[in-house]
Amino acid sequence: MEYEQHDRNKKMDMSMSYGRFAAMIATSTVIMFGLMYVNSYALGHVEFSQTRTWMAMVMGGTMAVIMMAFMWSMYKNAKLR
After folding, report:
1. Residues sharing a CB contact under 8 Å with residue 33, sequence separation 6 or more, in sequence order
2. How is residue 43 annotated by DSSP?
């Protein structure tokens, strides 16, 4: 009986919410967007770039797909997959 409870608790610890996953991807995408400006020579050279925004979105989406592939077993709700 104790073993079953321990096994169930262990499985619950391995699951992760989709909201947390989305927040992790969004945070990483924003950080990657900011890091694209690190290569600017002077602060005056920093201006909004649609290309950098697009590339940050592509990198964030790619990262989400790769992370989901590696962590597929952590997401138990098949309806939301």
Report:
1. 52, 53, 56
2. G
